[in-house]
Design a protein that fits this description.
Elements: E1 4-9, E2 14-17, H1 23-30, E3 48-52, E4 54-56, E5 61-63, H2 73-82, E6 89-90, E7 100-103, E8 113-115, E9 123-125, E10 130-136, H3 148-160, E11 165-167, H4 169-181, E12 185-191, E13 199-206, E14 214-220, E15 224-231, E16 237-244, H5 254-263, H6 267-290, E17 297-304, H7 306-313, E18 333-336, E19 350-353, H8 363-372, E20 381-385, E21 390-395, E22 400-405, E23 426-432, E24 439-443, H9 455-458, E25 466-467, H10 469-481, H11 494-497, E26 502-505, E27 508-515, E28 523-526, H12 528-552, E29 559-563, H13 572-578, E30 589-593, H14 595-605, H15 607-619, E31 621-622, H16 629-637, H17 649-654
Parallel strand pairs: 1-7, 11-13, 14-17, 17-19, 20-29, 22-31, 23-25, 29-30
Antiparallel strand pairs: 1-2, 3-6, 3-7, 4-5, 8-9, 10-12, 12-13, 14-15, 15-16, 18-19, 20-21, 21-22, 23-24, 26-27, 27-28
Helix pairs in contact: 5-6, 6-7, 8-14, 8-15, 10-13, 12-16, 14-15
Bound molecules: FE2/S2 (inorganic) cluster (FES).
Length: about 675
């Protein structure tokens, strides 16, 4: 009989095969992405396919009911034991008996697309470094003496075409009992990234392993450490969690940590210990919450700024505190997770650190670049990852520039009198009526505004505890829009502003948002000190962006992407009123969520993405803010709200800022026209 035509969807790959060929074999020969861990033994169920029957005019075939071999005992056994969706077959069991159209469902594709949030069109293709393989290993033979590891290598060569393996001592110690327990059939977890070299055996189990295979995407920030637990088989995020970075006790910002290391012998070792303890806490929390064992975690991808990078690695960051800011290494690193103190993970677990861009621009910026791909943008895009340190990228297809700017922790609610982390009870949105100067706000954990019915009851549980980062930005911007704050950042008095909410505080004034002191709660105000802290932070951010714009020779950007755990919550309008970011059409200012964390997750799911970002980073042009003469100039000019010199035409289209001046030294008690800068 003639060969049968087999068409696979969604790939569209087609070919002719002899009758009796298993579907899995046909898929492999055509290069169709059909998963298999057991190599066709009918036990892993990863090769599930859905045959289509009837007329397929699009493909020009008619599929007869007997186009595949009959349902067999192996499939029935699997269905009885584990269940199989009606209409599905096991690709390794079903044989081709006639022309057929075969659909490979996403769960059966190794390189399936991991679809990201709607905010981004980008999809990541699964291409993980760690995968499972079931093999039958030849038993030892007196006449042909060879080691168990060598026979395992031989089995992987012949059954999976894996040319070479290497194994650490932990695996060697486990090898012999596992082989015997599995009656010479074992599942092996192999790790192979984009670099040359052998596959590394991470772990092995008797028979078919059906436990978990996980990875951690870790965003190691100066203030918080966040991690996503991902399933390495399908890219799904099973759990996300975060802890404060315990290094905060050595200094809130990076430079104070570097100086701690400089001033205190052994200070770097203390900080290394602290950050590793923080990671341990996070891993413990995640494994408990996700109900997995830490041993099932095979890989960690870590993104961080250069100082955190060195401290995590146990390298004294002293060189990063002084020009020329030399890194010990800027290349990506592939290490044993245990070498980083991640001792709870699988003993053979691997850790991958993305490359650093420069002495001040770290692997976190590389991760943002991986997530947002400015190098593929048709228009000029500014990406700012707002944290204790702001990572800033500017570019398009032609070139990408990067810098980092020391914003300090004000945007995260630190150094703000009523500041707090984004948690239930924190004010996250705020509006001020420009006529009455009365505020209304929303707190995390409640959908109602404070002037809506039921607000008091709805927030009785959490209370109103403080202001988080996005809340303080809105508060300051709203104060500016309502005429309570002048262009230089001074809060007016009650007499100047016409509201009793502007209360004296020492020689300056504060704006009262909420007073719960009568019931034992806090009094939440925005003080002059808070305004100054926000001004410093936003000036640093703006000056960094401006410096990159100078390098490119432009005073205009087409798009702005706000990234960072807190960047996701910033209102573009308020950010622009403050002059945090350069003027741009408001609908072109988008939030990308935690882009560094997303970049880490992409690298965890795809070795091709690792290769890609390593190549991209080599092409990114680094700009050092600390030694750029114009940085200081830009910083000072950016202190005004929104800016002393630069115009904001797009902003003026939607907002008219009151021209007020509250400088006490001007001899006027009331309002006064402010000269335009
Ligand atoms: Fe494992 Fe088919 S390949 S069940």
């Amino acid at each position: 009989m003639a060969d049968a035509l087999v068409i696979f969807t969604p790939s569209g790959k087609r070919g002719r095969f002899a009758l009796g060929t298993p579907v899995l074999t046909a898929a492999r020969q055509l290069g169709v992405d059909l998963d298999s861990v057991c190599g066709g033994r009918g036990i892993c169920s990863r090769c599930q396919i859905t045959p289509g029957y009837g007329d397929f005019s699009k493909h020009g075939v008619r599929v007869a009911p007997d186009a595949l071999s009959d349902w067999n005992a192996v499939e029935q056994r699997y269905k009885d034991k584990r269940g199989l969706i009606d209409g599905r077959r096991l690709g390794c069991q079903a044989q081709i008996m006639g022309d057929v159209v075969i659909d490979v469902p996403p769960e059966s594709q190794v390189h399936r697309q991991v679809v990201r949030k709607a905010a981004s069109a980008r999809a990541v293709t699964m291409d993980p470094a760690t995968r499972l393989y079931l093999v039958d290993v030849t038993e030892p033979d007196m006449h042909e003496p060879s080691g168990d590891l060598e026979r395992l290598a031989q089995a992987l060569r012949s059954q999976w075409q894996i040319p070479e393996i290497t194994a650490g001592l932990d695996v060697l110690r486990k090898l012999q009992p596992t082989l015997r327990q599995g009656k010479w059939q074992v599942t092996v977890a192999l790790h192979k990234d984009h670099r040359d070299g052998p596959h590394r055996v991470l772990d092995l189990w008797p028979g078919l392993y059906e436990g978990g295979l996980y990875g951690l995407a870790i965003d190691l920030g100066s203030t918080t450490i966040a991690a996503h637990l991902c399933d390495l088989r399908n890219g799904a995020v099973l759990h996300s969690a975060g802890v404060m970075n315990p290094q905060i006790r050595f200094g809130e910002d990076l430079m104070s940590r570097v100086s701690y290391a400089m001033m205190n012998p052994g200070g770097d070792v203390e900080m290394t210990r602290a950050v590793r303890e923080g990671l341990d806490t996070l891993v413990a929390e995640i494994t408990v919450d996700a109900q997995i064992t830490a041993r099932e975690i095979m890989e960690a991808v870590i993104v961080c700024n250069p100082v955190m990078h060195h401290l995590l690695l146990g390298i004294d960051p002293v060189e990063l505190g002084q020009a020329p800011f030399a890194l010990a290494t800027s290349d990506a690193l592939n290490l044993g997770a245990r070498d980083l103190g991640l001792s709870a993970l699988n003993p053979s677990a691997r850790a991958y650190l993305l490359p650093c861009i420069a002495g001040h621009v770290g692997a976190d910026a590389a991760a943002v670049a991986l997530s947002e791909s400015p190098e593929t943008s048709d228009d000029l895009v500014l990406v700012v990852d707002v944290g204790t340190n702001a990572e800033i990228l500017l570019g398009d297809r032609r070139q990408v520039l990067a810098c980092s700017s020391p914003t300090g922790p004000a945007f995260e609610g630190a150094q703000i009198s009523a500041g707090q982390r984004a948690a239930p009870g924190a004010i996250e949105r705020l509006e001020i009526d420009p006529t009455t100067k009365e505020p209304r706000f929303r707190v995390i954990g409640c959908d109602l505004w404070s002037d809506e019915d039921g607000f008091a009851e709805a927030t009785a549980q959490t209370g109103i505890t403080g202001i988080c980062g996005s809340g303080i930005i809105e508060a300051v911007a709203e104060m500016r829009m309502a005429g309570l704050l002048d262009g230089s950042g001074l809060i007016g008095s009650a007499a100047q502003t016409g509201t009793a909410r502007c209360i004296p505080e020492g020689r300056t004034h504060a704006y009262l948002i909420h007073d719960a002191t009568a019931t034992g709660g806090p009094r939440i105000t925005v003080t002059q000190g808070d305004i100054r802290a926000i001004q410093l932070a936003k000036s640093a951010l703006y000056a960094g962006a401006r410096l990159l714009m100078d390098e490119i020779g432009t005073d205009h950007v087409d798009r702005v992407v706000l990234a960072g755990a807190f960047g996701a919550h910033i209102s573009p309008k308020h950010a622009m009123v403050l002059g945090m970011i350069p003027d741009a059409p408001l609908d072109q200012v988008k939030s990308a969520g935690n882009a560094a964390g997303t970049g880490a997750r992409i690298a965890l799911c795809s070795v091709a993405a690792r290769a890609g970002i390593e190549a991209t980073v080599k092409r990114i042009h680094k700009v050092e803010t600390a030694i750029a003469p114009r940085f200081q100039e830009h910083f000072v000019a950016a202190n005004a709200l929104p800016h002393a010199v630069d115009s904001f035409p797009e902003l003026s289209r939607i907002v008219t800022l009151p021209e007020v001046n509250f400088n006490a030294g001007d001899g006027e008690g009331g309002r006064r026209k402010r000269r335009r800068g």
